[in-house]
Design a protein that fits this description.
By secondary structure, the chain is of the alpha+beta class. Helix content is 50%, strand content 10%. The chain has a single domain, classed as Glutaredoxin (3-Layer(aba) Sandwich). The longest helix is centred in the middle third of the chain and has 31 residues, at 99-129.
Length: 242
Amino acid sequence: MRIEIWSDVVCPWCYVGKRRFERALAAFAHRDDVEVVYRSFELDPRAPEQGTESVVEALGRKYGGGPAAGRQMVDQMTDVAAQEGLTFDFAGAAHTRTLDAHRLLHLALAEGGPELQGRLKEALLRTYFTEGRSLGDHHVLRAVAAANGLEPARVEEVLRSEEYGDDVRADLEQARDYGISGVPFYVFDGRFGVSGAQPTEVFAQALDQAWGASRPGLRVLAGGTDGTDGADESCGPDGCEI
Protein backbone atom coordinates (compact mmCIF):
# COMPACT_ATOMS: atom_id res chain seq x y z
CA MET A 1 0.00 0.00 0.00
CA ARG A 2 1.31 3.45 -0.92
CA ILE A 3 0.64 6.49 1.22
CA GLU A 4 1.41 9.88 -0.28
CA ILE A 5 1.73 12.82 2.10
CA TRP A 6 1.38 16.36 0.84
CA SER A 7 3.18 18.71 3.21
CA ASP A 8 5.58 21.62 3.51
CA VAL A 9 8.86 21.66 5.43
CA VAL A 10 7.87 24.88 7.24
CA CYS A 11 4.41 23.67 8.26
CA PRO A 12 4.28 23.00 12.02
CA TRP A 13 1.16 20.85 11.78
CA CYS A 14 2.94 18.74 9.16
CA TYR A 15 5.66 17.89 11.69
CA VAL A 16 3.11 17.16 14.42
CA GLY A 17 1.06 15.08 12.00
CA LYS A 18 4.16 13.19 10.94
CA ARG A 19 4.75 12.02 14.51
CA ARG A 20 1.14 11.01 15.03
CA PHE A 21 1.04 9.13 11.74
CA GLU A 22 4.35 7.40 12.48
CA ARG A 23 3.00 6.06 15.77
CA ALA A 24 -0.03 4.63 13.98
CA LEU A 25 2.14 3.09 11.28
CA ALA A 26 4.54 1.56 13.82
CA ALA A 27 1.61 -0.30 15.40
CA PHE A 28 0.10 -1.36 12.07
CA ALA A 29 0.31 -5.10 11.47
CA HIS A 30 1.19 -4.66 7.77
CA ARG A 31 3.64 -1.77 8.19
CA ASP A 32 6.36 -3.58 6.23
CA ASP A 33 4.08 -3.54 3.19
CA VAL A 34 3.46 0.21 3.36
CA GLU A 35 5.43 2.68 1.25
CA VAL A 36 5.38 6.35 2.31
CA VAL A 37 6.17 9.05 -0.26
CA TYR A 38 6.25 12.78 0.45
CA ARG A 39 4.70 15.18 -2.03
CA SER A 40 5.41 18.89 -2.36
CA PHE A 41 3.14 21.68 -1.17
CA GLU A 42 4.27 25.30 -0.83
CA LEU A 43 2.39 27.20 1.84
CA ASP A 44 3.69 30.52 0.55
CA PRO A 45 5.09 30.34 -2.99
CA ARG A 46 5.36 34.15 -2.97
CA ALA A 47 7.76 34.16 -0.02
CA PRO A 48 11.26 35.52 -0.79
CA GLU A 49 14.06 33.17 -1.79
CA GLN A 50 16.25 34.69 0.92
CA GLY A 51 14.09 36.03 3.70
CA THR A 52 14.94 38.77 6.18
CA GLU A 53 11.61 38.63 8.01
CA SER A 54 11.31 36.25 10.96
CA VAL A 55 8.48 33.79 11.43
CA VAL A 56 6.90 35.84 14.23
CA GLU A 57 7.07 38.98 12.11
CA ALA A 58 5.53 37.22 9.11
CA LEU A 59 2.72 35.73 11.21
CA GLY A 60 2.00 39.05 12.90
CA ARG A 61 1.84 40.80 9.54
CA LYS A 62 -0.37 38.15 7.92
CA TYR A 63 -2.87 37.67 10.73
CA GLY A 64 -2.54 41.01 12.50
CA GLY A 65 -1.26 42.00 15.90
CA GLY A 66 2.40 42.40 14.98
CA PRO A 67 5.34 40.36 16.29
CA ALA A 68 3.77 39.94 19.74
CA ALA A 69 0.77 38.16 18.26
CA GLY A 70 3.06 36.13 16.03
CA ARG A 71 5.09 35.10 19.05
CA GLN A 72 1.95 33.98 20.86
CA MET A 73 0.97 31.76 17.91
CA VAL A 74 4.44 30.21 17.84
CA ASP A 75 4.35 29.59 21.60
CA GLN A 76 0.98 27.85 21.33
CA MET A 77 2.27 25.64 18.55
CA THR A 78 5.40 24.88 20.56
CA ASP A 79 3.23 23.58 23.41
CA VAL A 80 1.29 21.32 21.04
CA ALA A 81 4.52 19.97 19.55
CA ALA A 82 5.93 19.22 23.00
CA GLN A 83 3.03 16.85 23.63
CA GLU A 84 4.25 14.84 20.63
CA GLY A 85 7.84 14.75 21.88
CA LEU A 86 9.01 17.53 19.53
CA THR A 87 11.12 20.51 20.54
CA PHE A 88 10.24 23.67 18.63
CA ASP A 89 12.42 26.79 18.59
CA PHE A 90 11.67 28.49 15.28
CA ALA A 91 10.38 31.93 16.24
CA GLY A 92 13.46 33.62 14.79
CA ALA A 93 13.73 31.45 11.67
CA ALA A 94 13.64 33.31 8.36
CA HIS A 95 10.41 33.30 6.40
CA THR A 96 11.42 32.02 2.97
CA ARG A 97 10.15 30.06 -0.01
CA THR A 98 10.64 26.28 0.19
CA LEU A 99 10.86 25.36 -3.50
CA ASP A 100 14.53 24.33 -3.35
CA ALA A 101 13.99 22.13 -0.31
CA HIS A 102 11.18 20.35 -2.16
CA ARG A 103 13.40 19.87 -5.21
CA LEU A 104 15.98 18.16 -3.00
CA LEU A 105 13.28 15.90 -1.58
CA HIS A 106 12.50 14.81 -5.14
CA LEU A 107 16.20 14.23 -5.73
CA ALA A 108 16.30 12.01 -2.64
CA LEU A 109 13.28 10.05 -3.84
CA ALA A 110 14.80 9.54 -7.28
CA GLU A 111 18.21 8.44 -6.04
CA GLY A 112 17.43 6.63 -2.80
CA GLY A 113 13.73 5.86 -2.83
CA PRO A 114 11.20 6.57 -0.06
CA GLU A 115 13.66 5.64 2.71
CA LEU A 116 16.19 8.32 1.76
CA GLN A 117 13.46 10.83 1.07
CA GLY A 118 11.92 10.18 4.48
CA ARG A 119 15.27 10.64 6.17
CA LEU A 120 15.82 13.99 4.45
CA LYS A 121 12.26 15.09 5.20
CA GLU A 122 12.77 14.51 8.92
CA ALA A 123 16.12 16.31 8.85
CA LEU A 124 14.70 19.36 7.08
CA LEU A 125 11.82 19.61 9.54
CA ARG A 126 14.21 19.33 12.47
CA THR A 127 16.56 21.91 10.96
CA TYR A 128 13.78 24.44 10.67
CA PHE A 129 11.61 23.81 13.72
CA THR A 130 14.15 22.66 16.30
CA GLU A 131 17.28 24.48 15.16
CA GLY A 132 15.57 27.55 13.72
CA ARG A 133 17.71 27.61 10.58
CA SER A 134 16.60 28.98 7.22
CA LEU A 135 15.57 26.48 4.57
CA GLY A 136 16.02 29.13 1.93
CA ASP A 137 19.75 29.19 2.63
CA HIS A 138 21.63 26.97 0.18
CA HIS A 139 24.48 26.51 2.65
CA VAL A 140 22.00 24.99 5.09
CA LEU A 141 20.38 22.83 2.42
CA ARG A 142 23.74 21.52 1.21
CA ALA A 143 24.83 20.60 4.73
CA VAL A 144 21.56 18.86 5.64
CA ALA A 145 21.41 16.95 2.36
CA ALA A 146 25.02 15.77 2.59
CA ALA A 147 24.62 14.72 6.22
CA ASN A 148 21.67 12.55 5.26
CA GLY A 149 23.15 10.56 2.41
CA LEU A 150 22.81 12.68 -0.71
CA GLU A 151 25.80 13.06 -3.02
CA PRO A 152 27.12 16.64 -2.59
CA ALA A 153 27.88 17.01 -6.30
CA ARG A 154 24.30 16.11 -7.24
CA VAL A 155 22.90 18.42 -4.60
CA GLU A 156 24.96 21.24 -6.04
CA GLU A 157 23.77 20.45 -9.57
CA VAL A 158 20.16 20.57 -8.49
CA LEU A 159 20.51 23.79 -6.51
CA ARG A 160 22.29 25.51 -9.39
CA SER A 161 19.57 24.52 -11.86
CA GLU A 162 15.81 24.14 -12.04
CA GLU A 163 16.01 20.35 -11.91
CA TYR A 164 12.98 18.66 -10.31
CA GLY A 165 11.03 21.89 -10.53
CA ASP A 166 8.58 20.13 -12.85
CA ASP A 167 8.14 17.38 -10.25
CA VAL A 168 7.26 19.93 -7.60
CA ARG A 169 4.76 21.58 -9.93
CA ALA A 170 3.26 18.17 -10.75
CA ASP A 171 2.71 17.56 -7.05
CA LEU A 172 1.01 20.93 -6.70
CA GLU A 173 -1.20 20.22 -9.69
CA GLN A 174 -2.18 16.84 -8.28
CA ALA A 175 -3.01 18.52 -4.99
CA ARG A 176 -5.36 20.88 -6.82
CA ASP A 177 -6.97 17.95 -8.61
CA TYR A 178 -7.57 16.27 -5.26
CA GLY A 179 -8.98 19.50 -3.85
CA ILE A 180 -6.19 19.84 -1.30
CA SER A 181 -6.08 23.38 0.06
CA GLY A 182 -4.18 22.76 3.28
CA VAL A 183 -1.57 20.39 4.62
CA PRO A 184 -0.75 17.87 5.88
CA PHE A 185 -2.92 15.74 3.63
CA TYR A 186 -2.59 11.96 3.41
CA VAL A 187 -3.70 9.92 0.40
CA PHE A 188 -4.00 6.14 0.83
CA ASP A 189 -3.52 4.17 -2.40
CA GLY A 190 -4.99 7.05 -4.38
CA ARG A 191 -8.44 6.22 -2.98
CA PHE A 192 -8.79 7.59 0.56
CA GLY A 193 -7.80 10.96 1.93
CA VAL A 194 -7.14 12.17 5.47
CA SER A 195 -6.82 15.90 6.03
CA GLY A 196 -4.86 17.47 8.87
CA ALA A 197 -2.70 16.32 11.76
CA GLN A 198 -5.31 13.88 13.03
CA PRO A 199 -4.93 11.95 16.30
CA THR A 200 -2.97 8.71 16.07
CA GLU A 201 -6.18 6.72 16.52
CA VAL A 202 -7.67 8.26 13.38
CA PHE A 203 -4.59 7.37 11.36
CA ALA A 204 -4.76 3.81 12.71
CA GLN A 205 -8.37 3.50 11.58
CA ALA A 206 -7.50 4.91 8.15
CA LEU A 207 -4.68 2.39 7.74
CA ASP A 208 -6.98 -0.50 8.59
CA GLN A 209 -9.73 0.72 6.29
CA ALA A 210 -7.43 1.42 3.35
CA TRP A 211 -5.69 -1.94 3.75
CA GLY A 212 -8.97 -3.80 3.84
CA ALA A 213 -10.31 -1.97 0.80
CA SER A 214 -7.20 -2.71 -1.20
CA ARG A 215 -7.41 -6.42 -0.42
CA PRO A 216 -11.11 -7.37 -0.38
CA GLY A 217 -12.06 -10.78 0.87
CA LEU A 218 -13.50 -13.44 -1.44
CA ARG A 219 -17.28 -13.44 -1.63
CA VAL A 220 -18.69 -16.95 -2.14
CA LEU A 221 -21.54 -16.82 -4.65
CA ALA A 222 -22.69 -20.43 -4.34
CA GLY A 223 -22.22 -23.22 -1.83
CA GLY A 224 -20.87 -22.71 1.68
CA THR A 225 -19.57 -24.54 4.67
CA ASP A 226 -22.52 -23.79 6.89
CA GLY A 227 -25.11 -25.45 4.67
CA THR A 228 -27.15 -22.27 4.24
CA ASP A 229 -26.30 -21.79 0.55
CA GLY A 230 -27.16 -25.26 -0.67
CA ALA A 231 -25.12 -28.39 -1.07
CA ASP A 232 -21.38 -27.95 -1.07
CA GLU A 233 -20.29 -30.91 -3.19
CA SER A 234 -16.56 -30.80 -2.75
CA CYS A 235 -13.65 -32.60 -1.08
CA GLY A 236 -11.60 -31.30 1.83
CA PRO A 237 -8.82 -32.40 4.17
CA ASP A 238 -11.24 -34.74 5.95
CA GLY A 239 -12.29 -36.46 2.75
CA CYS A 240 -15.33 -36.29 0.48
CA GLU A 241 -18.89 -36.28 1.70
CA ILE A 242 -20.96 -38.73 -0.39
